[in-house]
Amino acid sequence: MKIYIEENLWDSFSFFDEIRALFNFTVEFKKYRFRDPYFLAYIRVRNPSERVFYEPLPLEIENEKRDLIQGVIYDGVELLKYFSQSIDISKPAVLITNRLIATPGDDMRYHLRMIVMSAAAVISLKGILYAPAKPPEYYIKSSLGFTEKIDIDVRKVLRMLILQFYAYFEYEEIFCSEKTCILYNCHTTEEINQVKGLCKKHVKMLEGVINPSLELRIF
């Protein structure tokens, strides 16, 4: 497996050993840089209710060159297409980025995502924090101007997402119906907290692939 870390995140990324420890095979890490600032500016989400792309402004392109992307949201499908075309997808490949990514939901509105996956995957570290729905009190306090800490175990969720993509890539397994399983498709912080480990079905599926020294049944 190859894990690509976007270049501007590389020096602050601290999960190399966490990811290596997941698998019984070699995980290779590489820096990655998007080479087309025009494209990145073009696929910015500009209207949460409509999936339409517009010619970017020169300043937006310049900001992409300088990595000035605070608060910018990208179309996750297009970002994944770009990444997939630039790497070897014959083996599992994941890009980890700090960019916020979103895709349209059933209501046709954009929603922030933690991961977008197909032949490869893009995982957003900021998405891990901001995409899952929070308890009502979080939004109440935020609306009143209080700075409420986002209580999410990024280490846990990153492992979950990488294992979900690996199961999809190798076994065409699309999530799990058991809410306590690592492969469950969590949409809220409450659901993330309910995840305890791999269910019996997925322990068997991933036997020999997952490092047996990890206590994946008790997350």
Descriptive report:
With 219 residues, the protein is an alpha/beta fold. The chain has one domain (2-205): 3-Layer(aba) Sandwich (Collagenase (Catalytic Domain)), CATH 3.40.390.10. It has nine helices and eight strands. It has helices spanning 16-20, 37-42, 58-65, 76-85, 125-130, 136-143, 154-171, 189-194, 200-205, and strands at residues 2-6, 28-32, 73-75, 93-97, 100-104, 110-113, 115-117, 121-124. The strands form two sheets. A five-stranded mixed beta sheet has the order 2-1-4-8-7, with helices on both faces. The longest helix is centred in the last third of the chain and has 18 residues, at 154-171. The mean pLDDT is 93.
What labels would you give this structure?
single chain, 219 residues, alpha/beta, Collagenase (Catalytic Domain), 5-stranded mixed β-sheet, 3-stranded mixed β-sheet, 9 helices, 8 strands, 16% strand, globular
Note the beta-strand portion: 15-25%
How large is the count of helical segments? Answer: 9
Largest sheet: 5 strands, mixed
CATH topology annotation: Collagenase (Catalytic Domain)
Instruction: Summarize model confidence as the mean pLDDT.
Output: 93
From the N-terminal CA to the C-terminal CA, the straight-line distance is 22 Å
Order of helices and strands: EHEHHEHEEEEEHHHHH
> Spans of 5+ residues with little confidence (pLDDT < 50)?
none
Strand order of the largest sheet: 2-1-4-8-7
Total domain modules:
1
Computed structural class: alpha/beta
Q: Could you give me the name of the CATH homologous superfamily?
A: Collagenase (Catalytic Domain)
Q: Choose one word for the global shape.
A: globular
By oligomeric state, this entry counts as single chain
Approximately how much helix is present in the residues? 25-40%
CATH top-level class: Alpha Beta
- What is the CATH architecture annotation? 3-Layer(aba) Sandwich
Question: How many E-type strands?
Answer: 8
**What radius of gyration results from the CA coordinates?**
18 Å
